[in-house]
Specification:
single chain, mainly alpha, two-stranded antiparallel ribbon, ERO1-like protein alpha
Length: 216
Amino acid sequence: MVRLGFCEADDIQSPEAEYVDLLLNPERYTGYKGPDAWNIWNSIYEENCFKPQSIKRPLNPLASGRGNMFYSWLEGLCVEKRAFYKLISGLHASINIHLSARYLLQDTWSKKQWGHNVTEFQQRFDEVLTQGEGPRRLKNLYFIYLIELRALSKVLPFFERSDFQLFTGDKTQDGEVKGLLLEILHLIKYVLPWLKSRGIVRGVETVTVEKTEELL
């Protein structure tokens, strides 16, 4: 049986290749909020997470104060299906942290001021204000962080290839950036066994590749 790769690497030599400087467009508060934003995230959870047929919408542990019931059925799922929820929740938490850290505090015709919005952060992660959900969200953020570390450690051989190039517009800078990238990836590869030996990545290691591919 021929197995295709999960994704295909773009041809970096193609004239159609586009490079985006993320420093010019940092992840931060966009002004999009209210019921519409909540509906979008609710749809993201419902369309990607697994749940028994008996569970009604919305797929939100805080809806109608049903947190205990939500986690009762969630814990009844296999580890891979629970991982889907944790990954999306962790991504959601990461975005919320970024928008709280880079919040539009002042928006006038003469000035835009960005900064930390502690109140916004507390509303999303404080244990009391979120009825206990905040700490769970932060744990899921840590979970997706470990998943990303594993993914980066596995992709190291690709970036070590001599034909892999970076294009910043400056050949000298290209070499420096690639060197820094490889330094970070080697550090990750070195750190992961240490985390595993202390049981820190135990929950991540139990998410088997075979089962995850089956779910995909």
